[in-house]
Structure formats: structure tokens, C-alpha cells
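Chain A, query sequence.
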Amino acid sequence: MKLWLLERAGDEGADWDEYFGFVVRAEDADAARCEALIAAGIDDWHFMKPENIGPREPWWGDPELTTCVEVTVDGPVGVVLDSFKAG
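Chain A, predicted structure.
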């Protein structure tokens, strides 16, 4: 298993009360995207299959709208995940 950092590629269309990132434990990037879809509340199994993820699907399945990079011990110093409850 690996850790994956998924982040939105930009703030276009961003609104309040939306996910902007996930850290996911998964075998590969496709599986990480599926887990992010589940965590974001996408419960349609069509979207959870890597072969069905495409440019018109929800944020976390779209490689043009989100990044998905493996988190390793190598890399720049910085926070990988923060959690803030707005409201």
C-alpha cells in the first residue's frame, strides 16, 4: 500500500463546504481516486470503477481537475494534511 495526496488543481468553481484534498491509502492512483470519490459521497458504483472515471465525472475522478501524487518520506518539508471544521 502507498499513500496518495489528491488535491484540486485550482480554485475555479470552488465554493464553501467542499473538499479540497484527501490523503488516501491505496495500491495505486486509480484506487486512490476511487476512495476519494467514496469519501466525497459519490455512491454511484459507476464512478468508483477506474475504467469509468473520465473528464465529465466528479472532481476526484478527473485527472485534469485534480492531482494525485504518491506521498513518500522524501520531499519538501510541509504539512501533508490539515483538517479544519468550518461552520
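Strands lie at 2-8, 21-26, 66-71. The chain has a mean pLDDT of 77.
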